[in-house]
Automatic annotation (TrEMBL):
UniProt superkingdom: Bacteria
Acyltransferase keyword on record: no
Region annotation Disordered: where it falls in the sequence: 188-209
Protein name: SGNH/GDSL hydrolase family protein
Cross-referenced SUPFAM superfamilies: SGNH hydrolase
Annotated SGNH hydrolase-type esterase domain residues: 45-211
Endpoints of the signal sequence: none
Keyword Transcription regulation: no
Single annotated GO MF: phosphatidylcholine lysophospholipase activity
Pfam families named among the record's database cross-references: Lipase_GDSL_2
Keyword terms: Hydrolase
Length: 230
């Protein structure tokens, strides 16, 4: 899907992603529907994980797998603003002005733990501002906010902010730290993957990790036109 620009992309990768065969449903799913007569517009805001880092190909990234699965229920048009190594504030600035969408997926904050870490109070303000900017353009959109890709002990302060700021009726918070804890979903370092010199590391999710993230995202969505979800 990375095709329109280096960090802003739309459309699909050359090799089509394969939809998930089944999705683990989560409690309290959020309804998602396209506008009358139109496609479901999905906006992804994220960092290297949203760009697909760690996956074997872009088609194996959580973003493309999730979008391919959504397309089984609804005609879907996706757009992403993502940059490897970027902090929340950087991607928020890149995403301005926010584009219209019925579903917004935010995967940001992981790089805010890099030294020097973004102070929690500042991170809270930045996340609140981003949600406000999204809501100003898309007041009725479903917004899914993913937690940071870190061990639970390190993720907790930032995840608490994300959960607080993503607590409205049309929003859902999804933690990722438990997936990070599963070492089968990351690495091994040196594998052929999207990464530095074509190699993956032991930090970014591998194909199984990206699939698990896609499954979690889809599990909280109730797509109109498909009563059992994607």
């Amino acid at each position: 899907m990375v095709g329109c620009a280096a960090v802003v992309s739309c459309g699909s990768s050359e090799e089509p992603a394969q939809p998930l065969k089944s999705v683990t449903r989560l409690p309290d799913p959020i309804d998602v529907a396209a506008t009358a007569g139109g496609d479901l517009r999905v906006l992804y805001l994220g960092d290297s994980i949203t760009r697909g880092s760690g996956a074997a190909t872009y088609a194996d990234s959580f973003r493309e797998v999730a979008t391919a699965t959504m397309k089984q229920a609804l005609a879907t048009d996706d757009h992403s603003v993502a940059k490897g190594g970027a902090r929340l504030a950087q991607v928020a600035a890149m995403a301005t002005p926010v584009v219209p969408a019925e579903l917004v997926v935010i995967e940001l904050g992981t790089n805010d733990l890099l030294a020097p870490p973004t102070p929690i109070d500042e991170f809270r303000r930045q996340y609140r501002d981003l949600i406000g900017a999204v809501r100003a353009v898309n007041p009725s959109a479903a917004v899914v906010c993913m937690g940071v890709w870190r061990p639970p002990s390190k993720a907790e302060p930032y995840d608490s902010v994300i959960a607080d700021e993503c607590g409205s009726a049309r929003s859902r918070y999804l933690p990722l730290s438990d997936l990070f804890q599963d070492t089968q979903l990351r690495g091994p370092a040196g594998r052929e993957a999207l990464g530095t010199n074509g190699e993956g590391d032991d930090f970014h999710p591998n194909d199984r990790g990206h699939s698990a993230i896609a499954n979690r995202l889809l599990g909280v969505l109730q797509l109109a036109g498909n009563s059992s979800g994607p």
